[in-house]
Amino acid sequence: MSIPDYQRLMLPVLRLAAEGEKRVADVADRIADEFGMTNEEREELLPSGRQRILHNRIHWAKFYMSKAGLIASPARGRFVATEAGKTLLATNLARIDVALLMRDPGFREFYRNEGQATSVEDAVQTTELSSIATTPEERIDAA
């Protein structure tokens, strides 16, 4: 098993956030267990050597979901599901990804301002073409 990309982490992160206030350190092992990650994968660092890849991807998953109003940050380093996030979970969806987040006008505005897709169709096309598997920080490190 490879380390899941940040989009595959969105649903498990939101599920855990719906249980109550969390920190990345609180959820990383539970998510790693859910995906059957090895100890080596759990400890693998970004090329910069400053952060574990899994932790980085969890941070990006929660960041993007916060821009869509699904997660809130009640204190520094902490996150929790919003009512909108809990409502979305109640629909028993199979996946959360950028294309789904594009349904939220606030997220679309954020994404457009970041030089990304401007519509749901653009997000779907972008997702299909590149799978948006890496986080922005990973793309910077790779460059």
Characterise this structure:
This protein is mostly helical and 143 residues long. It has one domain: Arc Repressor Mutant, subunit A. 57% of the residues lie in helices and 3% in strands. It is built from 9 helices and 2 strands, in the order ααααββααααα. It has helices at residues 6-18, 24-34, 39-43, 53-67, 83-89, 98-101, 105-113, 120-130, 136-142; strands at residues 71-72, 80-81. Strands 1-2 form a two-stranded antiparallel ribbon. A hairpin with a 7-residue loop joins strand 1 (71-72) and strand 2 (80-81). The protein starts with 5 loop residues before the first helix and ends with a helix. Residues 123-131 have low confidence and may be disordered.
Can you give me a brief rundown of this structure?
By secondary structure, the protein is an all-alpha fold. It has helices spanning 6-18, 24-34, 39-43, 53-67, 83-89, 98-101, 105-113, 120-130, 136-142; strands at residues 71-72, 80-81. It has one domain: Orthogonal Bundle (Arc Repressor Mutant, subunit A), CATH 1.10.10.
